[in-house]
Amino acid sequence: MERLILSLPEAKLTLKPGDILVVFAQDGSRLYWGPYVVGETTFPFWNTETLEWQLILRP
What we know:
By secondary structure, this protein is an all-beta fold. It has strands at residues 20-24, 32-37, 45-47, 52-54.
C-alpha cells in the first residue's frame, strides 16, 4: 500500500468530531474523494498504534 503524508509546515492538524475532509487529486484529473465527516463516516480513523489519523483512498 502506498501512503501519502499530509505535510503542514509549522503547524499541527487537529481533527475533531464533525470536521469535514475532502481530498483532491493534484494531477489535473479533477478526481476527489469525500466528503468524510470525522466521527460519522468510516474514514478517517484514528490508528492507536501509530497515533495518527488514516484515510484510505481508492482510485
